[in-house]
Amino acid sequence: MVEVLFDVVILGFGPAALSLAIALHELPRPLNVLILERKPCFSWRGGASPLNGSRMRTSLLQDLVTQRNPLSDFTFINYLWATGSLVDYTNLSLVNPPKSVFCHYLQWCASKIEALGWIRYGHEVSGLEPLSVANGEINTWRINAKDIKGGTLRSVEARRVIIAVGSQAKLSPPLSSFRSHRRLFHSARFHEALPDIQSNEARSLNIAVLGGDDEAVEIFEHLCSVASDSKVVLYLDDTALRQTDTNPFLSSAVQTPNRLPYELRRCLGAQGDFRAVAPTVHSSVLSRLYLLQYSQLVKQGNRTEHNSRICTSKEITHARTSEGTSRILLDVTDISTGVAEKSVPFDYIIAASGYERTEHQRLMARLQSVLDSLDGSVTVDSSYRVNFKRGKVAAQSGVWVVDGFEIESGDAFSFLALRTETVLQSLFENDKTGTQDGKHTEAGTLVERATL
Ligand SMILES: Cc1cc2nc3c(=O)[nH]c(=O)nc-3n(C[C@H](O)[C@H](O)[C@H](O)COP(=O)(O)OP(=O)(O)OC[C@H]3O[C@@H](n4cnc5c(N)ncnc54)[C@H](O)[C@@H]3O)c2cc1C
């Protein structure tokens, strides 16, 4: 059953979609907007792990709106004021808010958008397809979704579709067959692992954390404090933990108008290979961790006896269950010496092996024939608008993919509000003239093409 024609349908309701929804709500003209989210309520995955006093890596000014509209009701500062905590927060002098507070801010904003009646939770989108064609151009899209509770399939129609479905947990090949093993958790599910670890009757557990980014290191640090009788080891393939480049000149370069989408600008130093950027950790986390390791050295001497160990240059080549138990053994090769070794049986493994962003491709599978690329891949222009073949899609219609770049793009909140402004400008830029302007029609020349 098809309902009204929506001006904009947003797929997914994470922070990216929330920022866009606020921007659409703040436009002077009323719009018919729908947001489809598969979860039963709003939740931010960055806040799912209850890490001790963990703070945002980004500033309170890098919220959902401030850099786009500092006068908005949805700023972090206004949230503090509206919830009666502005004075107390000010006394803390914290530029980087505690994650628990930022999570509450996001929930607070989400509840205001919910009140507009724009959101349908529990709806998983399966794909979109072109619908009506006027003068040979697609001007409406059909979005197919499943009501998860009732199992009913539903369709909605829209002029413009924004895909904001985020990323999906990725496991590296030696561990991919352990996806549903009860001892192995991707870092995205650490909040599920933690109660299990803490309620385990064995006092001294062997736990491995795999990875070398902020997420891996924060989880490692947290386990070292809450499971202090256990042996916790961090394996990473790099020769050392590396520091995130937070120099303000780079941040300025990312925020300055450019022909590239925001995600790619931070990687410009990577000599064109955007995917080759090594995982990094914020300096404050590195300092804390180094101090922890040093205190251990002073107390315990022999490094191999330490309760928490950081093992660099290690590649996990194989994993199997330890005979007669559900514990997991790892084959580990030292990259610097080539020597292979077998690990102790691990009671738990937390794999911070990153995320992949391929969901938008699945959702757009039925649009392949109209995509403007030789190999059927999805490309966007600098306003995140999908490049379709010339003359195939009407100017007032289109699809935008806001979080599909297969790269570690740093902290999304550092450019979230700016990216929202870019998308917003592009969504309605052709409404006034009724024709595509030079920017889009000349996509190959004026606008950089970016493969997701
Ligand atoms: C532990 C952790 C800490 C972090 N800390 C920071 C930080 O301090 N600062 C910072 O800037 N960034 C941080 N990040 C990164 C930040 O969380 C993410 O970049 C941000 O969540 C991205 O938002 P998003 O809306 O693009 O994607 P997501 O948060 O992944 O949201 C996507 C939404 O789409 C929904 N969805 C997916 N597929 C479908 C479908 N087919 N149908 C319907 N709905 C669908 C999902 O359920 C989800 O709700 C952190 C991330 C993690 C994991």
TrEMBL record:
Its cofactor is FAD. It is an enzyme of class 1 (oxidoreductase). It holds the Pfam family Lys_Orn_oxgnase. It catalyses: L-ornithine + NADH + O2 = N(5)-hydroxy-L-ornithine + NAD(+) + H2O; L-ornithine + NADPH + O2 = N(5)-hydroxy-L-ornithine + NADP(+) + H2O. GO terms for molecular function: oxidoreductase activity. Keywords: FAD, Flavoprotein, NADP, Oxidoreductase. Belongs to the lysine N(6)-hydroxylase/L-ornithine N(5)-oxygenase family. This is L-ornithine N(5)-monooxygenase [NAD(P)H]. It comes from Rhizodiscina lignyota.
